[in-house]
Amino acid sequence: MEKHQISLGAINLEAAHPAALAAFWAGVTGATPLPGGDSVYLPPADPDGFAMFFQPLTGARPERQAIHLDLTVPWGSRQREVERLLALGATHRWDVLDEHPHVQWTTLADPEGNLFCVAEHPPVVASAP
Fold first, then answer.
1. What is the value of pTM for the model shown?
2. 111: closest CA among 46, 35, 8, 26?
3. DSSP E strand boundaries for the chain
4. Model confidence at 126, in pLDDT bands (50, 70, 90)?
5. Per the database entry, which stretches of residues form a coiled coil (predicted)?
6. How confident is the model at residue 127 (pLDDT cuts 50, 70, 90)?
7. Where are the domains of the chain?
8. Which of 10, 45, 96, 127 could form a disulfide with 30 if both were Cys (CB 3.0 to 4.6 A apart)?
9. What CATH class does 9-57 carry?
């Protein structure tokens, strides 16, 4: 069977204020924005990171967001990371803490209202034979 070599190049977002939104996400990821005209490219901050591209909004925002980012942090650091992101300008939307034993998450919105989640997964405990 042929191996497919596909990877995520960048997450593209339309923004009312591309530079300001890129600055927020630069704070989230630790990357350095690279402006180019009306758009801003945010390269991955490290080899395991992801790139983002911000371009001017070309029409009305959809009423319902069909896609969002799920960001993962080490177990026990979600609340600290959420507090950091709130200080950067994110807005708290809701928490899901007890509904699923394999994950807890907080849903936030960036300064332009795009939803994203910060999730943590408990460590897997090996069972005795």
1. 0.86
2. 26
3. 11-15, 34-36, 39-42, 52-56, 69-72, 91-96, 104-109, 115-120
4. low
5. none
6. low
7. 9-57, 65-129
8. 45
9. alpha beta
42's tokens: 């945010």
Counting beta carbons within 10 angstroms of the beta carbon of residue 124, is it exposed (0 to 12), middle (13 to 18) or buried (19 or more)? Answer: exposed
Exposure string (b/e) for 87-103, b if CB count within 10 Å is 16 or more?
A: eebbeeeeeeeeeeeeb
Among 1-10, 15-24, 56-65, 70-79, the minimum mean pLDDT is found in 1-10
Nearest to 61 by CA among 23, 109, 14, 108: 14
How far is Cα 112 from Cα 122, in angstroms, rounded to an integer?
31
The pLDDT of residue 86 is above 70: yes
Torsion, CA 28, CA 34, CA 36, CA 39, rounded to 10: -10
User: For 12-30, what is the mean pLDDT?
Assistant: 96
Q: pLDDT category, 129, cuts 50, 70, 90? A: low
